[in-house]
C-alpha cells in the first residue's frame, strides 16, 4: 500500500496545472508557425523541454512511490501521461501535427525534442484527439446538403487516420476529391 500525503497530492496537482499551461502555449505555437516561424521555433524550443521535464518529474515520483528506485521506465511514463486532462493532450496532439506539417517547425534543433515528446505522449495524445466528438455546424450541414443536391458525394466530418483531425467535408465527384477544412485562421483547401 502506498501512502499518499497531502504534500504529494499538492506536488502532483501543481505539475498537472503547469503542464496544462505548457500544453496551451504549445497549441498557440501552431498559430504562430505559418506567419512567424522564428517566434514559433523559439517558443517551442523552450516549451517542449519543459513539457518533457514535467512528464519526467511526475514519472520519477510515481516510480519512486512504486518502489522502483526512482528510475522511469517507459511504461511508467505512459501510465503517468493518463493523469493529464484530455484537453491538454489534445493540444499536444495539435502541436505534434503542426510540427510535421509546418516547414518553420521542422528544424534540426527542435526535431529531437519533438521526437521525445512524440515518443512519450504521441499515442495517448492522438487517442485523446481522435476521441473528441465533432459536430457539424448548421451552415456546414446546409452547404453539405447543397453540394449533395448538385450531385457531389459528401462525407461530413471526415476523420484523417494519420493526424486525427476532423475535416468538415470530403467532397468528391468522378474526377477529384476536395477536403473542406473548418473556416479558421490558417485553414487550407486540400486536394486529395
Question: How is this structure best summarized?
Answer:
By secondary structure, the chain is α+β, with helices and mostly antiparallel strands. The chain has helices at 6-35, 37-65, 74-81, 86-101, 108-131, 138-149; strands at 153-159, 166-172, 177-180, 190-191.
Label the structural class. Answer: alpha+beta
- Range of strand content: 5-15%
| Percent of residues in helices | 55-70%
Order of helices and strands: HHHHHHEEEE
Name the shape in a single word.
elongated
Can you tell me the residue ranges where pLDDT is under 50 for at least 5 consecutive residues? 184-192
The profile of the biggest β sheet is:
4 strands, antiparallel
Q: How many E strands? A: 4
Structure, described:
This protein has 192 residues and is of the alpha+beta class. It is 62% helix and 10% strand. It has six helices and four strands, in the order ααααααββββ. Helix 2 (37-65) crosses helix 5 (108-131). The longest helix is centred in the N-terminal third of the chain and has 30 residues, at 6-35. The chain is elongated and about 65 Å long.
